[in-house]
Specification:
The chain is an alpha/beta fold and 302 residues long. It is built from eight helices and twelve strands. It has a single domain, classed as Rossmann fold. The longest helix is centred in the first third of the chain and has 19 residues.
Length: 302
């Protein structure tokens, strides 16, 4: 696999120690431990977090996170419990994002991310699973569906970054660039309030929001991010043959839901459902009702 870009922490040992401590704080907040799994892939070391991974005879859900996030975001305030059924859950730390995985990445417009995702599943001894991705992670799911559809039972796309280009509206650019150009906790909070959440309907507890703000300031200031950003996959999506469920929030500034829904209906052949949540921002993976919907659809597929 050809390596296109390489991202890295500025001081790897110190920064990974910070990340480890952050995970411990999340575990304390949630009152549970995540199984740390390290595998070798074509992109180097890939880190995965497991929940219930040791329990047999359960359905499996594999999760891919959004850009500038860790897959553990999905479990702020024990959010994964909202799925409502016990699953083997694997939270994959996509290479090239600010996490414990190596920073090597392939060309995002190639099929290599799909081949890598299939390799991750193989190394985890997962024959077939439900897969879910938020934002950037939605693109990973679609690449996997193109390269290895036999590994997927169904796909859940949450405010995905593969159905349209990143919004170039002045409002969206302002709130996204503000914390990057002037990193601070206050600017991160403003970005979260205006683009990621929609308070009071869509929000985190005070403790989880602090963890999120701390992580974002860390990711922006400590990680040299050269990873390519998601793009509109357009006619590539016609290759997807798996069942797909689209879950979007109507207050997503980054990828406005109307265009995502319209494009999905035209280009995804087996679009099984579209769920639009009112007063929900881009960070829909932290919204309890979205997790409940995933659980509902998995139950119906059994």
């Amino acid at each position: 696999m050809e390596i296109k870009k390489y991202s890295q922490f500025k001081d790897r040992d110190r920064d990974l120690d910070w990340f480890d401590n952050w995970v411990e704080d999340l575990e304390t907040s949630n009152g549970r431990k995540y199984k740390a799994i390290e595998i070798e892939t074509a992109l180097g070391k890939t880190h995965v977090w497991g929940l219930n991974e040791h329990v047999s005879n359960l359905e499996t859900l594999v999760i891919f996170p959004g850009a500038r996030t860790t897959s553990l975001f999905w479990d702020f305030d024990k959010g994964l419990d909202n799925i409502g059924i016990q699953l083997n859950i694997y939270l994959v730390e996509t290479n090239g994002l600010p996490n414990l995985s190596d920073g090597k990445t392939p060309d995002i417009k190639s099929e290599d991310y799909g081949k890598w995702a299939a390799e991750v599943m193989d190394k985890l001894h997962i024959e077939k699973a439900f897969v879910a991705g938020a934002s950037f992670g939605g693109l990973i799911c679609m690449k996997l569906s193109i390269t290895n559809p036999e590994k997927i039972k169904a796909v859940f796309l949450l405010n995905p970054g593969c159905l349209q280009s990143f919004s170039m509206t002045v409002k969206n650019l302002y709130y996204n660039l503000l914390p990057i150009l002037a990193p601070s906790a206050s600017h991160v909070k403003k970005f979260l309030d205006k683009a990621v959440f929609c308070k009071p309907n869509h929000m985190l507890s005070e403790a989880s929001e602090k963890l999120l703000v701390d992580y974002e300031v860390f990711a922006i200031t400590r990680y040299k991010d050269n990873t390519q950003k998601p793009y509109d996959m357009d006619i590539e999506l016609l290759k997807v043959k798996n069942d797909v469920h689209l879950i979007v929030g109507d207050k997503d500034l980054l990828f406005p839901y109307e265009q995502s829904v319209a494009n999905a209906k035209v280009k995804i052949q087996n679009l099984m459902s579209v769920k639009v949540y009112g007063n929900v921002g881009h960070g829909i993976e932290t919204y309890g009702k979205a997790m409940k919907y995933i659980g509902k659809m998995i139950k119906l597929a059994e």
